[in-house]
Amino acid sequence: MSKTVILGVTGSIAAYKAAELASLMVKRNYVVHVIMTPAATRFITPLTLQAISQNPVHVDMFASPGSWEIGHISLAARADLVLVAPASADFIARLAAGMADDLLAATIMATKATVLLAPAMNDGMYANPVLQEKIVYLKGVGYRFIEPETGRLACGTVGQGRLASPEAIIGAVSQAFSSNQDLADKRILVTAGPTREPLDPVRYLSNYSSGKMGYAIAEEACRRGARVTLVSGPTQLAPPPGVSLVPVETAQEMFEAVVGRYDQVDAVIKAAAVADFRPRQKSEQKLKKQVFSPVLELERTPDILGYLGEHKSRQVLVGFAAETENLLENAGGKLRQKNLDLVVANNLTEPGAGFGVDTNLVTLLYSSGETVKLPVLSKKEVAGILLDKVAAIIQVQAKKV
Ligand code: PMT
User: Fold this and answer.
1) Ligand 1 centroid from CA 183, angstroms
2) Is 272's C-beta closer than 6 angstroms to any atom of ligand 1?
3) What are the domain boundaries of the chain?
4) Of 76, 79, 48, 51, nearest in space to 61 by CA
5) What is the residue with the minimal CA distance to atom 36 of ligand 1?
6) If we measure between CA atoms, which residue out of 94, 67, 78, 68 comes closest to residue 10?
7) Is 209 in the pocket of ligand 1 (CB under 6 A)?
8) Binding site membership of 210 for ligand 1 (Cβ less than 6 Å)
9) Which residues are catalytic, by number?
10) 327 ligand 1 Cβ < 6 A
11) What is the CATH code for 187-280+291-400?
12) Which CATH architecture does the domain made up of 4-177 adopt?
């Protein structure tokens, strides 16, 4: 059953971005009904949003009786979620004052659905203590806010007030719909994809990782309420909505990105295929065939997981083991040597497992000695089961602290 989203649009210069949001939500198979305040129609026409949402757009509370049956009461009842994007300062203040003199405010007052507000305004207006007091009040009565971004604003100033990115807003909508919020507010760092170890400006050493496993974990963790940082090598994948992407190339860059954030996270899940070796010499110029040596001298790259294991405090540490033989022995060795809480072992030579495919065939090994062998599952399902285990371990760790 598709979810119904009421997309409220208010009088902000960012109102034009409602078109992209409506389009993204329709593509995710949400039923989108748009309600505009009269001020919003000065920035974007109802016809534009009607064409994108494929539903009549509502503006006037007292429109002709023919449309009354889908007025604020029935829209409020049908909504699975109300998203106000952009939410202007005036609209936020009127909502906090309990005003219901326009269709959008009346619908919000009547609905029992989750209400998400994405403010967009001049930075000085957003920082105004009167508005901030209204936001605190609305949060206190259960309204959720998607913080505006900091950057160059339409009025030419630079500050916090720019409407959050479509990815962040859609991620928040997706999160609000997921019933399971067992990772709410947990900070989880996921690594994904290959690393690239350069030989010269043209050539590098890498591997077949597509990033699908790590991206599935990041998306699922975000859907379940976690604040997710995804440190990713080069892939062809779009970052999951709502996830904070940190793109890297080399093992050294991944090491720095992960270690630099280690103290601020509750769990690290290392699905990335990090190169173990890199060329000892990196040429600044393209190596010519004539001088190309048949022997390539290699050196070790930083062992990120090993470092994390040695410097672990309260974090939950999950590693992967990509093997082609002696799966359980090799994975068990990593579990112990790197002080892991859990290792996900996959034999890359088995059908449906490992690089590039949408499925994986994994065995979970716990520091407790427990082993769980899973059948071939989608990487999304593997991510769900893995995160069930991570959530449980985080809970146990939290009780110890
Ligand atoms: O990306 P996909 O196409 O979806 O493929 C998924 C996958 C096969 C990449 C994934 O399931 C997987 O197995 N990832 C781990 C790959 C890997 O590098 O395994 P490893 O056994 O070589 O390394 C063991 C662990 O140490 C891994 O968690 C790895 O991230 C980590 N490591 C390795 C080397 C290094 N220098 N630093 C590390 O942190």
Assistant:
1) 24
2) yes
3) 4-177, 187-280+291-400
4) 76
5) 303
6) 94
7) yes
8) yes
9) 155
10) no
11) 3.40.50.10300
12) 3-Layer(aba) Sandwich (3.40)
Name the token pair of 79: 């909504």
Q: What is the rounded CA–CA span in Å between residue 284 and residue 276?
A: 22
**Alpha carbon of 348 to ligand 1 centroid (Å):** 11
Quick check: do 4-177 and 187-280+291-400 share a fold? yes
Ligand 1 centroid – CA 318 distance (Å)? 11
Q: Which atom of ligand 1 is nearest to the CA of 213?
A: 4
Q: Is the CB of 354 under 6 A from ligand 1?
A: yes
Query: What is the CA(235)–ligand 1 centre distance, in A?
Result: 15
Closest of 53, 63, 44, 143 to residue 96, by C-alpha? 143
Residue 265: CB within 6 Å of ligand 1? no
- Encode the chain (401 residues) as per-residue pLDDT tens digits: 678 999 999 999 999 999 999 999 998 889 999 999 999 999 999 999 999 999 999 997 666 545 445 556 688 888 999 999 999 999 999 999 999 989 999 999 999 899 999 999 999 999 999 999 999 999 888 899 999 998 888 888 889 999 999 988 988 888 888 777 889 889 999 999 999 999 999 999 999 999 999 999 999 999 888 999 999 999 999 888 788 999 999 999 999 999 999 999 999 999 999 999 999 999 999 998 887 788 899 999 999 999 999 999 999 999 999 999 999 999 999 999 999 999 999 999 999 999 999 999 999 999 988 899 998 998 998 999 999 899 999 988 877 76
C-alpha–C-alpha distance, residues 172 and 87, integer Å? 15
For residues 198 and 204, what is the distance between their CA atoms, to the nearest angstrom?
4
Both tokens assigned to 149: 């971004």
Give the residue whose CA is nearest to atom 22 of ligand 1: 322
